[in-house]
Amino acid sequence: VIRPGIKRLFTLALRRRNAARDVDRELATHLEFRTEQLVHRGWNREDAWAEAVRRLGALDHTARTLGSHAARRDRRMQLRESIADLLADVRHSVRSLAREPGVSLFAITALALGVGANATMFGIVDRLMLRPPAHIRDAHAVGRLQITSQRPGFNEARSGTFGYVLYDNIRRSAATVSAAATFAASEVVVFGKGRNSRTINGAEATWTLFPLLGVQPELGRFFDAKEDDPVSPLPVAVLGYGFWQSEFGGARDVIGRTALISGESYTIIGVAPKGFTGPGLMRIDVWTPESYGSHSSNWTTTWNARWLNVVLRVKDGVTFDQAGAELTALYKRLRNIPDTSPLRLSAAIRPVTTQRDGTQMSEARVSKWLFGVSLIVLVVASANVVNLLLARTVRRRREIAVRLTLGAGRARLIRLLVTESMVLAGVAGAAGVAVAWIMGGVTRGLLIPNVEWTSGVADLRVAVISGGIALLAGLIVGLVPALQASAPDLTSALKAGVREGGGRTQRIRATLTIAQAALSFALLVGAGLFIESLRRVQALDLGVETNRVLRIWVQQEGANDESFATMRQRQSHLYGTALERFRERPDVESASLAIGLSFGMTFGDAIRVPGMDSIPQLKGGGPYMSAVTPGFFETVGTRIARGRPFQSEDRAGSAPVAIINETMAETLWPNENPIGRCFYVGQSKNCATIVGIAVDARRGQLREEKALMFYIPYGQEEGIGGTSLVVRPRGNARQMIADARRMLFDMDPSITFVNIAAMQDAVDAQTRPWRLGAMMFTLMGVLAFVVAAIGMYSVIAYFVANRRHEIGVRIALGAQARDIVRLIVGNGLVLAVIGVAAGSAIALAAARLIQPLLFETPARNPAVFVTVAVALLAVAFVATVIPALRARRVNPVDAMRVD
Amino acid sequence: MAESLPLVKGTLDVLVLKALNWAPMHGFEITTWLEDRSGGALDVEDSALYQALYRLEDRGLIRAEWGVTENNRKARYYTINPAGRTHLKAQTEQWLEYAKTVTGVLTSAPKRA
């Protein structure tokens, strides 16, 4: 019995018909029959024809009505038929996939992981790089100001933050710019008071920001020129959508209520729309007028304070370059920089998504790479699936040959095979979205936490992209074996045994295996490089043991009429009490106070050294200073290289002393002992005697230029303020945070806000790109590697199965098991070695590109290459030795009896 | 054939189905079948027949395929579908009921109230 599906293969050619022609032909036949009948009854032929035509009525009209009827029906039939065909094909595919569940499951898993990795990375790249921040109208015309300057002999310096005065001038006089605004975001804005207080993300902006971006409020309104007036600003606030939801339950009557922000009462006048992050990507909980911020009295006119991002919208038809040229000229004019100045200076407008120094976020750059990497994973996975399907079609060559002989067209057959792979890909695509959902959540949460993800991890764009990728992969992985299998010469397969005629397929499979090995090698080298970078970052001697130290800020309620001096006094008393409390705790190793702290606030001041005309300017800037209490160095873990640390006698009013860092010692007193020498700090009349030399400590960056730095006793400082309490707990520093917070609130009821953070947090934020790279590269590299290893195993296993006959003959002729294993393993290792060679070539070629992303690790690090090569060859060995050992057990009699 | 009966509206479809229920036929065969069965009493317009055939095919009650006649000539053969059979049965019953009723009314003797 021939199954309906098979029968359809034969009638397929007849289906194609022309409805109108059918009607004509049918009516013509009818006329002939009728004429014949009448002639038979005794009519003459001419009359009979006329009568037949008459009976058909108006022939043309009849034909036309019938024709259109028929055409309509045919279209419907064809549609129904192709749907039925498709369903039959899909059913057939599902059946044949289910027949080999292992193969299908592996193929689906491999593709799903590949698709999922792609979708994840696409989602991230899409947010970080492709899409402008939400709610910006005509975002291509909106940019961020950046000024690049270079003094002769110095590195290029890029600045992305400026004073109000520059913004004001651009807004008034730049002809190429239609609007200007400023924006300054902070992650440590205090919300609320006392025990319930906490930090939120806040942004100060000029009122011009909102019309510039073209954003509409969700509720109420944004602040206007009057509320942001530099002379008489008003305390008004606009809430971020998420904050409004979480803090105010999305209440619509929130307008007019007050919120305690940074200790002041602000009136809520509006709510920003969902996902609005201004020109950045960071979540913003509350927007306040720039003018209401706490500023110095001359803040609108001074060129010395720079803290504002300047956002610009260029006029229609003006390019960023044209606007940049005008702004360069404007800036030079404002600062009185003549064209003859050796200072090279240029202003430019950068896309809003770039960070302050004008470069893309490092996460974005790493993500871009990872997107490419995930594509490679997909290629490896697809190559593997092609490999599996090739093996499968070879196993099915008899079935295919039978179909071909029975008259199934090649196109029909290809369609059937491609449908199979599409079904595979469809399932894999759906699973891929699930993978993306999990992977995306993890990646976003752990590695890129600062960005406001306006969309879900697997939004429509991601789903569409994954679907597209999956289907494309399905098409390709299906088409290759299908074209192979349906090649005309394959009919000879009917006659030949299964083991013959595999030469071409075998070559394709070998090439695919090499490609997989090469690509996974390259990925693993990438992973190795990132891991090495991360290791070096983490092993970096920062000069301070950031992972052991907590940094604490405390604020307390002040009386309105209090003078600055009494406030300072009260604060210093508060910090002093807190310091004692911490020192008394048994779980605290040591504690100290500091003004000016690594990975916190840094202060600079001029110094004079008796006998020196000038102090050399180092690239790192400076000199920087900190005022610290005794115990500071052991608390933060900065080693005193020579001399002594501060003691309790070094305090306000005592003889001025100082500890300098090694760079300062080497720069100012090379080849001599600086201890005992002295220098003047700022305007001080007393020369501070150097009592010790501390090792260099980082100021705030993992990579930074050396700079002069010195420490003076807490209390001897002049003109700087802003105390931090640093605590070194005995155990895990972070575990003490909650307890420390409670202790401080219990200690003094006037405390309004406590901020405790592990010093390590600031470091972690900076190591994030490498962690992102190390984790994702490793994940994807291992993924590709496993897939490739299984691919290699399957190729060798297939090779063995295919040559059972030959192996049987060899064994019969007296070959040792050892020889058989050697033959097969050798075959596999050749593929692996070629793969490693090709992979090295790829990795070496890509080295130059990836170098900027690494941390003090050469991209052509031989150790990484060798390690990965050894690992890959070892796994290749295992993957080939298993089927090889199986081959050893081939029974020659059985093997030769087959076929 | 001037004495032939005009076709009552709507009956042609049933008649065609009846013919095809007998055996697959091409269009001309159906006309001759109808003529034979009615003793030449039914006057079926050829154009109306074809419209009926296409209509029935459209409704999925019959299907058509090109075939070969006994004299080796190509013709379009119509075959009744299961749906057509059901339809025929229902229509036949309805028609008989209708005919019985109408006949009853027309042939009953007038009664006095």
Calculate the terminal CA-CA distance of chain A, rounded to whole Å.
27 Å
Classify the beta-strand content of chain B into a percent band. 5-15%
The ordered H/E elements of chain B are HEHHEEH
- Number of helical segments of chain A? 24
The whole-angstrom Rg of chain B is: 17 Å
Task: Describe the overall structure.
Helix content of chain A is 52%, strand content 15%. The two termini of chain A are 27 Å apart. Chain A has 24 helices and 24 strands. With 899 residues, chain A is an alpha+beta fold. In chain A, helix 2 packs across helix 4 (59-99), helix 10 runs antiparallel to helix 15 and helix 20 packs parallel to helix 23. In chain A, 41% of the residues are buried. In chain A, a hairpin with a 6-residue loop joins strand 20 and strand 21. In chain A, strands 1, 2, 3, 4, 5, 6, 7, 8, 9, 10, 11 and 12 form a 12-stranded mixed beta sheet that branches. Chain B is α+β, with helices and mostly antiparallel strands. Chain B has 4 helices and 3 strands; from the N terminus they run αβααββα. Chain B has a 3-stranded antiparallel beta sheet. In chain B, a hairpin with a 5-residue loop joins strand 2 (62-68) and strand 3 (74-80). Classes of the chains: A alpha+beta (899), B alpha+beta (113). The interface between A and B is medium-sized, with 21 and 20 residues.
